[in-house]
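Ticket #4471: structure export looks truncated?
Reporter: QA, pipeline team
Priority: medium

Steps to reproduce: submit the single chain below to the structure queue and open the exported record.
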Amino acid sequence: MAQRTYTETEENIFEAAVHEFACKGKNGARLHEIAKSAGVNKALVHYYFRNKELLYESVFDFMYSKFMRALHNAMEGNQSFRDLLKSFINGYIDFLKENEGYSLLLQQELGIGATTLRKKYDEVVGQFEEAPSVHFMKKMEEAQKNGEIRDVDPYQTFITLLGSCIYIFIAFPIISTARPELADKKDEYIESRKEHIYDLIYNGLKLKEN
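Actual output as written to the record:
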């Protein structure tokens, strides 16, 4: 399946919709607020998407495709597992940093049962020859066979990695409450998370020298 392209107007609407849906949820979001933020009239939003439900689904097409593309690009190339892990962490966190509304939108969607996310999963993954999760697990299995890392469940590792990267974006309000000195250093702290997550996961996986 080819990756869909969008007009500039559609992308502006999506960016405004991500913020509105992330802050207010699907039920609380209002099309007139999305139109206002996007700098268009409400009639144009209806022209492109007909109603709020279809706009919400289209937002997931747009954002989830961007997310999967970012992971795919981060792991592109014939890298060692060690390099792949570092590239994945950097690419994932950079995406979340540049698209902070995505983590909040995802949190909202999971809170209402993830119906739209489940519906869109196969459609979005179908844009790629191989899903990023599958590519990651294959590389991890190769590293296990080559004796680079321990025999640990690749899927469990992948889930741990996803959670470790996104948590800072979801939980920063409480983290900065517990550590007030971080409140004005969010970007710096997020950057430091890259190395910390890599160090923790890779050194937890690699074989120990006797």
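Status: closed, not a bug. The export was complete when the record was re-opened. Leaving a note from the reviewer for reference: The mean pLDDT is 92.
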